[in-house]
Amino acid sequence: MTGRQRARGGGVSGLWWDAGMASRVLYLLGSAAPPVLQTADIVVEAQRDGWDVCVGLTPTAAHWMKDELRSLERFSRHPVRSGYKLPGEPDAWPPATVALVAPATFNTVNQWAQGLTDKFVVGFASEAIGKGIPLVAMPCVNAAYARHPQFGRSLATLREVGVRVLYGPGGFEPNEPGRGRPDAFPWRLALDAASEAAGG
Ligand SMILES: Cc1cc2nc3c(=O)[nH]c(=O)nc-3n(C[C@H](O)[C@H](O)[C@H](O)COP(=O)(O)O)c2cc1C
């Protein structure tokens, strides 16, 4: 059973993984591009890599995945977060070892680079720069979005402050509009970069 089938209601019995087994915490922060629909499988893959995984989604991505959120919470064993906590509310997640923003839409990349933090995922990633939390980003944009002048500026800004941006050769390479292949999104490269960012 794939992680997505499990998240869609296929049950969580027989889980071998337990949050207490992992001391390395990966924040997997996704925005609304089609590979986000593979998040359940990626949580399982990251758990196999030894991560305790906490899933954050932009509100649009959370809407796309609304039927899977409860199950995702059950098998990640953490709440899926798409909004900020209330003032005074305790943190729902353990502290991050590393955060992986993937897939990162054109919108999320630009908001992050410009510090526009009305969304929890972007707010966390923006503050994490200043906190020195290792950050990895795998954009997912088509070639038309990529030609917009702000996109290159945003990638440069994020790289300047130390975010490992996996875009171009060795990372995500854009296709022309309508030719995207969500199944080819290089998740494995993203997870490997997260491990490397965390020191191996
Ligand atoms: C079917 C579909 C596919 C999309 N694919 C992408 C994509 O690959 N990359 C992208 O930047 N935006 C894509 N978008 C547009 C984003 O979902 C949209 O800009 C959204 O506002 C992003 O919000 P977020 O960054 O807060 O998740 C897609 C939209 C739809 C409906």
TrEMBL record:
Signal peptide: none
One Pfam family recorded for the sequence: Flavoprotein
InterPro entries noted in UniProt: Flavin_trans-like, Flavoprotein
Ranges of residues in domain Flavoprotein: 31-144
Protein's recorded name: Flavoprotein
